[in-house]
């Protein structure tokens, strides 16, 4: 039986990494591609979900971080820095801890989910809560990494994109070919850039006959690419993708256009509806930002724009336990009611509808 070695060892020949560079790995990648029967039926296509919440720190960021931290060690870096809406910081902190590097993370104050915050702290990051949004944090990090000996591990670092492209390889390997459509959430736009790089490289290597149309979805209150201009004050409950000026904007547009795809937006209501559908009918628990891909697919389905019978992969980017509060509220914002019972079988049976009240 094969023990998954992490994305660097599994795909080393496809990655820009020197043979002598040792992998700093937590066993990332190799995530499940789950056939989604209910969703497939709903949209009239063959839908699979790439569950990236199953990575070691609970998000897709680990694929890029294993590369970025392995190479940071090779470059002789002693400290790394990133801006984050939460998942990048959790991942950077974990891989830096593993490598024995110091990590510094800048996050928008009060706007990152508690699970992510606790990860950064647990992995010993120096955490700065910035009185600004993600875009402000990234600007600060770029300045600091230019002026001080601290290595930037945001996705503007090409090593991150390089690692993240392995998700496309896994999809093609699992399906025996490229899907027709690949759907994913878009925030800072590194991931759509990485997936497109992976798909085109696998095609060029003769390992995937075709490439999918890339469908990206931003949150409606943070949809600069859809609007065609930066958003100064991005707002969405999907804090992971609360970004107004994506660093990889041009690359995302190129991925959209070269693939014959689209970038559109989904409302917070649509995100929460998709979040609930996924957990209640497919058994897959994600954070709200991740549900943007599912919400986007459902939106396109309602508009009659999902090609019948198409093979579709939706990436869900982060685990539901990162930001669990949304499961405990209904879509109108009120708290989900729980049922309390005494230690008594008849009361429990009544509460379960097994006995008449
Ligand atoms: N989904 C989740 C759960 C994310 O954390 C992010 C980005 C995205 C989607 C969007 O990916 O930025 O490559 O377009 N999170 C970054 C962070 C910004 O700091 O954790 P993207």
Automatic annotation (TrEMBL):
Note whether Amino-acid biosynthesis occurs among the keywords.
yes
One family from Pfam that matches here is PALP
User: Which UniProt key words apply to this protein?
Assistant: Amino-acid biosynthesis, Lyase, Pyridoxal phosphate, Threonine biosynthesis
Tell me yes or no: is Acetylation among this UniProt entry's keywords.
Answer: no
Q: Which InterPro entries match?
A: Cys_Synth/Cystath_Beta-Synth, Ser/Thr_deHydtase_PyrdxlP-BS, Thr_synthase-like, Thr_Synthase_bac/arc, TrpB-like_PALP, TrpB-like_PALP_sf
List the cofactors: pyridoxal 5'-phosphate
Q: What reaction(s) does this enzyme catalyze?
A: O-phospho-L-homoserine + H2O = L-threonine + phosphate
Q: Which residues cross the membrane?
A: none
SUPFAM superfamilies from the UniProt entry: Tryptophan synthase beta subunit-like PLP-dependent enzymes
Which domain of life does the UniProt lineage start with?
A: Bacteria
Give its E.C. classification number: 4.2.3.1
Q: Give the pathway listed in the UniProt entry for this protein.
A: Amino-acid biosynthesis; L-threonine biosynthesis; L-threonine from L-aspartate: step 5/5
Indicate the segments forming the Tryptophan synthase beta chain-like PALP domain, all copies.
24-318
Functional note: Catalyzes the gamma-elimination of phosphate from L-phosphohomoserine and the beta-addition of water to produce L-threonine.
Record-stated family: Belongs to the threonine synthase family.
Q: What is this protein called?
A: Threonine synthase
Species of origin reads Brevibacterium samyangense
């Amino acid at each position: 039986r094969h023990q998954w070695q992490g994305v660097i060892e599994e795909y080393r020949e496809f990655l820009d990494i020197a043979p002598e560079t040792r992998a700093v790995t937590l066993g990332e990648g190799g995530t499940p591609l789950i056939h989604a029967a209910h969703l497939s039926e709903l949209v009239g296509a063959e839908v699979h979900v790439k569950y990236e919440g199953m990575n070691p720190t609970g998000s897709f960021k680990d694929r890029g971080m294993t590369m970025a931290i392995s190479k940071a060690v090779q470059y002789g870096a002693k400290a790394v820095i990133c801006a984050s809406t939460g998942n990048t910081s959790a991942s950077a902190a974990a891989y830096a801890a593993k490598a024995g590097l110091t990590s510094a993370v800048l996050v928008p104050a009060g706007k990152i989910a508690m699970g992510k915050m606790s990860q950064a702290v647990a992995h010993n990051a120096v955490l700065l809560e910035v009185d600004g949004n993600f875009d402000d944090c990234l600007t600060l990090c770029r300045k600091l990494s230019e002026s001080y000996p601290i290595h930037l591990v945001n996705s503007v670092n090409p090593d991150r994109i390089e690692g993240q492209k392995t998700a496309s390889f896994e999809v093609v390997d699992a399906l025996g070919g490229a899907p027709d459509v690949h759907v994913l959430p878009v925030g800072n736009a590194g991931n759509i850039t990485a997936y497109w790089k992976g798909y085109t490289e696998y095609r060029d290597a003769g390992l995937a006959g075709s490439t999918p149309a890339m469908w990206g979805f931003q949150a409606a209150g943070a949809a600069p690419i859809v609007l065609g201009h930066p958003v100064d004050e991005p707002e969405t409950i999907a804090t992971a993708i609360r970004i107004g000026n994506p660093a990889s904007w041009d690359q995302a547009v190129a991925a959209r256009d070269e693939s014959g795809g689209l970038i559109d937006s989904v409302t917070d209501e649509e995100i929460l509806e998709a979040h609930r559908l996924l957990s209640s009918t497919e058994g897959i628990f994600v954070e709200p930002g991740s549900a943007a891909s599912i919400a986007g697919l459902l939106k396109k389905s309602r508009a009659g724009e999902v090609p019948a019978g198409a093979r579709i992969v939706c990436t869900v980017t982060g685990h539901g336990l990162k930001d669990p509060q949304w499961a405990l509220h209904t879509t109108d914002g009120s708290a989900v009611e729980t049922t309390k019972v005494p230690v008594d079988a008849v009361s429990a049976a009544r509460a379960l509808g097994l006995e008449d009240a």
